[in-house]
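Entry 12.
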Amino acid sequence: MRRSEPADPGAPLDVLDTAEAGHTAVRGGALRVAGYCVGVVFSLVSAGLLLRHLGVTDSGRYYVVASLAALASQFTEAGLTAIGMREWSVRSDAQRRRFLADLLGLRILLTLAAIGGATAFAAIAGYTATMVAGTAIVGVSLLLLQIQLTYAVPLMAGLRLGWVTLAELMRQAGTVALVVLLVALGASLLPFYAATIPPVFLALGLTMALVRGRMSFVPSFHLGRWREVLRETLPFALATAVAAVYLRVAIIIVSLISSDEQLGYFSVSFRVVEVLVLVPQLVVSAGFPIFARAAQDDHDRLGYGLGRMFEICLALGLALALALAAAAPFLIRLIAGDEFAPAAPVLRIQGLTLVAAFTTAVWSYALLSLRRHRLILLVNLGALALSIVLTVVLASADGARGAAIATTVAEAVLTVCLYVALRRSAPTVHPRMEHALRVVLAAAVAAATILIPGLGDAAHLVLALGVYAAALVLFRGLPPEVYAAARGRRATT
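Predicted 3D structure (tokens):
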């Protein structure tokens, strides 16, 4: 579908059609990552207060309900935000309004079904009355969050990512503030479930104020149009679900075929990777509206954008891998204590998984922009099958380290297969990656510093990242858009 022209010939030019789009996406992606890091700090503060206040038993009950909500959220989300961003980027104003109204109605229905299912499961599983009520209460915050995410689609598609980040931080900061208040008041378990609702109202209110007049806040319940949305969305939704269980399957396999100690080592490493693996999604989603617009009729621009995004993601992935290689022992001690020291080599191996995860996100969003939903699903299923086989074989032989090697190899195969699928399904798209070799060379130079004996973890970390940054500048390893964004102006390439 080609994007229709705006009805109003005097309407301002869409940022996606300007040369500022790349600069804006780079800056917006940096804001999303920075906001995510601040959000992680908020989460750690909130979790620390909760654990100490509720104690072992009630903390377990709280996180069981939180896990149920997260599972329900996964099925409710089902890639609908990404689909909404793509359709907003390529449709006319009237089509946008109607599509988002349909998406809002569909999302509300799916969320209500997820809330009902999670609450019913809590009751059938014999959870306490407080936990059953808490599941329903957290479900209300989940419903409000899905509505807020739908309203935020015009902001994300319009590259107004600073406002999106602010809304997210308001929600997270509000949660921490309420947790602090409830702890000070000596509250029992149930109010902590309810504390998830007011912060979402803050984010929802800000989002509605920002998009007022651009979309309808009233959902549409048109079954015929819903069928059209689901027919196109379902394969990508399944692919999203497969990606969500990717690393968790490895944990289950390790729990079945290896010792409790090996499971513990792998689980600690997984927890670190689980937090960091969301970063590439934030980075690539910042440029996704540009990809979606270019995929319609400008494959030269799409190839250029994909190449630049690949180089940025490769550089970020290698930076995280270097950081984990240098500081893995310190991170393990900080998170779990000295008894988990054998998990450090596992974390270093899984740092390489992050490199592949960053590039995987680029090719996944590229195929999504081209509407190759079934192809994404098939490749993800193949990678999942490979991961299962490798984990069974390698974890049996080498425990947590074997499982880490298996997931890293499977992720690397996934990114290669997605790239091959992109080139074969869209031969007119030619990603330009002329800086990639320079990025790898800079990382190799920095990695050599980790081998210097006699330095502590902190010194290795600072030295490795410092040399890496210097080498990137010296080799001109990053795209010009990155340097331009750092200087506060648009690249001229």
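Annotation: Residues 20-77 form the longest helix (58 residues). Residues 1-12 have pLDDT under 50 and may be disordered.
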